[in-house]
Design goal:
The protein is an alpha+beta fold. The chain has a domain of 166 residues: NADH Oxidase (3-Layer(aba) Sandwich). The chain is built from 9 helices and 6 strands; from the N terminus they run H-H-H-E-H-H-H-E-E-E-H-E-H-E-H.
Length: 238
Amino acid sequence: MTNDDKNAGSTMPVGGDYVALKLPHLQNLKDGEMANRTEEFLTLMKKRHSVRDYSNRPVPRGIIENCIKAAALAPSGANHQPWHFALVQCPDAKKRIRTAAEEEEKIFYKGRGGDEWLNALEPIGTNDQKPFLETAPWLIVIFRQTYGFNAEGQKYKNYYAGESVGIATGFLITALHNAGLSTLAHTPNPMNFLNPLCKRPANERPEMILVVGHPDKRATVPRHAKWKKPFEEITTII
């Protein structure tokens, strides 16, 4: 076991006997109440936007922590919960993340991304400059744990880790939006510079940087981002 592996430990129990518990928090809502809830939630989510222009207005850490706790309730393969959230508030750390990310982005926009990908990004209006990585009060670096260790130091495999982290990230973005905050999923490629910066072990892979904060009063969104595929195109009813 390497030093990095030793830091990757988890006290989570792995394996064991099946024990059935009565379903807690059982809901039995009437159809009308369920419909009302879906309408209210849909209205809330229609107000969610990916934001690249942030104010420097602080956000209390407790709000971010509650949203992380909500994300951690997501389902995961074998309940291994293969995620880690590094909360970055330190201005120096955010500056180092921006510097490293922009170095990768410059290479990407100079051609590594390929013509098709770069053409697809044109209506979004992005480039290699990422000031939001410093301006926003919080960066949440989301890591995927490819494997873990139990309390005895035995290595175990995580199942459907990518899917599990994706679901948890959806929970997190929704929780932050519900709190009145804006987010942006930023994925510089490659992202391996984030492990040493966030002091994360070798068994973890950064999935994205989630930028979190309040939008600047002059914030804009690309018109292209407001186009969504119609329900009939994304849904098949069998």
